[in-house]
Amino acid sequence: MDIQVLRSYFPLFQTAAGLTVRLGAEGIFLALLVGLICAAVRYWKIPVFCQIASCYIEISRNTPLLIQLFFIYYGLPKVGIRTSPEICGVAGLAFLGGGYMAEAFRSGLEAVDSVQKESAFSLGLSKNQALLHVILPQAVSVSIPAILANVIFLLKETSVFSAVSLMDLMFTAKDLIGLYYSTTESLFLLVFFYLMILLPVSLLGTWVERRLRYAGFGT
After folding, report:
1. Most buried residue, 30, 45, 139, 150, by most Cβ within 10 Å?
2. What is the fold of 21-166+203-215?
3. Domain residue spans in the chain?
4. Which pLDDT does position 120 carry in this prediction?
5. What's the pLDDT tens digit per position in 61-108?
6. Whole-number Å distance between alpha carbons of 105 and 142
7. Is the pTM of this model over 0.70?
8. ∠ CA(166), CA(169), CA(174), 5° rounding?
């Protein structure tokens, strides 16, 4: 292990980590939004849209992110749709994550007692109001462990962004290993920065889950 090599590589990995976190955060935010919409559509069993959402969930969860990225980056230009590597990465992560988040939200929604929904309707709330103010808050508290597990999973999946020429952590490590054969130092920094990204998320998730359990939600 060469300390001088670690020092010289550190700024490169720092920049790559910033890109990884930014694209990961954008993709996860969109995945949460897509997942929530799909879960709501399936929960209310809206005709046609329910079948479309179910089909999307099956496709997104049963195809690898790498194949999805290749389809977006190399396949869509064949029909005139071109994207930058960053947009491709975010779109791929949102497409994959949306399916997983939809199932996490759906499990939470179905865990809410039907009495809650009936009570909301008896108070004169519409479907959307009941979902937003009564059902969803309880469903999210139940879904928190699954949602946070999906967040960590999606952050780790950013490691395949290098396939579409994004200078993320994995791309930087492979590039430095290929150029200078500094395998030990590159892999050490790769593991170090992924831990710095994922460990706080894991600890935060544990804290949030405990707080919700202490408050009596999700039980």
Report:
1. 139
2. MetI-like fold (1.10.3720)
3. 21-166+203-215
4. 85
5. 999 999 999 999 999 998 888 889 999 999 999 999 999 999 999 988
6. 9
7. yes
8. 85
